Prior knowledge:
Number of strands: 8
Distance between the termini: 28 Å
Number of helices: 7
CATH topology: Alpha-Beta Plaits
Number of domains: 1
Largest sheet: 8 strands, antiparallel, barrel
CATH class: Alpha Beta
Mean pLDDT: 87
Helix content: 25-40%
Low-confidence stretches: 1-8, 10-28
Order of helices and strands: HEHEEHHEEHEEHHE
Strand order of the largest sheet: 1-3-2-8-5-7-6-4
Shape: globular
Amino acid sequence: MNRKLCGIFAGVCALAMMSASVIPAQAQDEPKEKPPMYSYVGFWNIPRAQWADMEKNNAVDQKILDKALADGSIVGYGSDLNLVHTADGMTHDNWWSAMSMAAMLNVLDKFYKSGTPTSPVLASATKHSDGIFVSRYYNWRPGSYKNAYTRVGMYKLKTDVPDHAIETLSKSYIVPMLEKLLADGSIVEYEIDTEAIHTEAPGTFWIDVIAPTADGLDKLTAALMNASKTSPLSSAGFQSMVDSSSHRDSLSTSTVTYK
């Protein structure tokens, strides 16, 4: 998200924190935490001359992922091409999600046994990293989507915030807003992630939204801006809980499938 959107999230999340502290839990019509969903993501920096080869490699990977989706091992998978490049950032990623760590790792094992990790295009990567994430707030529309857009905002909580900060802001505001966008088709998936295997600093979390078209991104922006108008609080509350210097965003074109 850009700075304007970061400020908008700041205001609404501050409102969420305050409202949750003054309204009894039983009086709040809020989303419930879901069973943990685990996602494995492989990040790659692929030389531009090999981007077409990466597409071909993704097509080969799809055979393994489609089988895992069909037998219920995973609930979704996809690949992303980064649209906003940085000097030391990644260009591509591949991911899949499952309802247990074991199911997620079993698919990873299938890839290793298939020889995919040693394919020429992946061997050409100048950088590579992996992440394993867990989400308890998520939803999607089943189906396959090409040329979608994935927008991710990364945030880091300050060390003195309550342990339930992510839970509170998820239940009280972010999930209800994203559920409305999901219901009208503006987005096809969202999740709020933390790391299951920590490679980032503790307290880091990600808000991940997938829109089927660029118009969906505009509708997301409009929803956030509307929320800022109806919120009586400024961004100061959120900034008191989040280390703004650690905030980062990404925007990708995506091919995704959800069961």
